[in-house]
Known about the structure:
The structure is a single chain. The two termini are 15 Å apart. The chain contains 7 helices and 11 strands. A 7-stranded mixed sheet has the order 5-4-1-6-10-7-11, with helices on both faces. It is an alpha/beta fold and 260 residues long. The mean pLDDT is 93.
Amino acid sequence: MSNDADGAAVDMGDVGFVLLAGGTGSRMKANMPKQFLDLCGVPVLHHSLDLFLNRLTDHAKESGKSGPPFVVLVMDPKYQPEYQPIVDNFNGRLAFANPGVERQGSVENGLSKLVELADGSCEYVAVHDSARPLVTIQEISDVITDAKEHGAAVLGVPCKATIKESEDGTLVLRTIPRSRLWEVHTPQVIKIDTLQRGFAKVEAENLEVTDDVSIVEALGEPVKLTLGEYTNLKITTPEDMSVAMSILDERKAQPVNMLA
């Protein structure tokens, strides 16, 4: 893929990545989960794997810095044998974790595996949805920079749509001021010890959280909004695949080969 980072590289030697690929993709109307559907010749998931394991590392090395030391792939065990050759190809930098019942459980399983692998060498975790294959090096650099300053950060974009609130799904209760609304993306980057404390609080108080930084919010600690790109879309419907292909074509994306 073309170089999509304009600024200097950020050192990621203390940032581990958890890549969530355990979803079922029910809205895609396909016979397999969306992360395994073909996008420009390879499964959607491979675009994120290539970014985290190859391109981020190459970009960091150009500035004498380190890329991510570890990536944990959260994946249903029935698909893991197919991906074992890729895991073997990265000599301990890539490992599996099993998904939980909900996203929160998948993140917790991925984090536990990362902590085991890193053995104290990672201070931050970046959690990313495999259904977002278009995130750029620049976006990742920006959100990691913000997390290192604030303790937690999330990529997002100002909401463009007008949002109405309804209690019953029939009548409008009110219009929510758009200027205060952000659509959040991934990666979401958090200090590992903060996320561990958050998981403990969520479990102890049986809290319901919708994303990773919500756990930080539950602790009453700050989360920085990092301005991302509208192109960092989540592939949810068949139409999204067409948009993603167009974006990759416009970027003149290089072929991805995870066994090279």
